[in-house]
User: Fold this.
Amino acid sequence: MNIKAKLTIGIGVLVAMIILLVALSVVNLQILTATEPDSPAAAPGLNRALLWIAIVGIICIGIGITMLIRLPSSINKPIKELTDAITEIANHNYEKRLNIKDNQEFSVVSENFNRMAQRLADYHASTLAQMMSAKKYMETIINSLSDPIIGLNNEMKILFINDEALNILNLKREEILNQAAQDIALRNDLLRRLIRELVGEHPREKQEPLKIYADNKESYFQAKYMTITQPGKNGKAPEKKGYVIMLKNITEFKELDSAKTTFISTISHELKTPLSAILMSLQLLEDKRIGALNPEQEDLSNSIKENTERLLNITSELLNMTQVEAGKLQLKPKITKPIELIDYAIKANRVQAEKFNIQIEVEYPEDKIGKLFVDSEKIAWVLTNLLSNAIRYSAENSRVIIGACQTQDGYIELYVQDFGKGIDPRYHKSIFDHYFRVPGTKTQGSGLGLSISRDFVEAHSGTLTVQSELGKGSTFTMRLKA
Assistant:
């Protein structure tokens, strides 16, 4: 029976009961009216009329209450079943079905709902199968990578990790998946070192290779950090979804680099002996007691001397570089005045400055300046190299400034400023790399001086920076703790 029929019957019954009650009342009223009030039959007739009216009224009230309870319930029950079923579907329970047969309209709704639920279940099953297949495919790809890889979400929970990463971390997959990386890092030193770059407020720009014992040998890995983003909704800015940590095995390159360093160190040592012998022979050759040289011979002698000295400088730079790369750089710090380092650099470059008619100006505060606790030979070498570069890259008859100052935060800055053609901003970081030379530079050099200078300064926990503009010159600043 449909809802319309139920409502029609219910309203019809109520109307019929009302008509019956009214008709009964009218009939009894006419009977009572026709009876004489003093007649002996008046009282029984009145009582009988009231009884029938009461009985019919009670029956009507009972039927009305019954309909009041049953009729809304019969309509509300299928609606509630439908609402509950929709809620189950919304909660991804696609197995929910309706079985409403005592109501024509809801019977049709039930059939359509069941058909929809079945289609949703089929679609969910196929989509879930595709997702599981895609997930297994991605896991296969990740596990096939020879480099360790770890994926984390924004809350730093580990989402995936391949077998290589599990191997070097010495962990089991079921122990760490969907777990907070910080909690696991409390008992795993390597993972703590890896996520330090992600949780740190100021990640290091220069990351040293990680030395890890893996595959029964010492291996070196370079960590690479990638931020995973996806396009935002409605064309908004990309949203960050997590991170991926990838470790590149550089053991082979590290071994080759070590072999290169050993080779350069050996060659440099071997070259210094014959070069020193050449310089000694030149000194004997220039001795007037042996005999005077003609102008042509003197030019050749000077050329040999300059090239030999340049080779000696290069071998010295190579030896310094190999010491840094091999980790054998030994510092012998002592208390040193900044002015002493400046004087040393000026004396070492005086001949070169006079050759190009470069005026060296010293800027030094009149107030008392702090002292440095550094390896004076290493820092003097750095300052000498910076001043030499400033002279070489300056035009003739120009000036170069060398100076020192103390900052309010307790550091001493030693700086060298020239007014040459300057350095393109694109190369401000590259000039501190080994063997790098700014494209188009005609001045001779090995490309090692600034690299070694930076290593020496950083070995003292200091910094070496450059400020330069094309056409306005350059300023190199060495910042050390007082």
Summary: Residues 255-325 form one domain. Confidence is low (pLDDT under 50) at residues 201-205. The chain is about 55% helix and 15% strand.
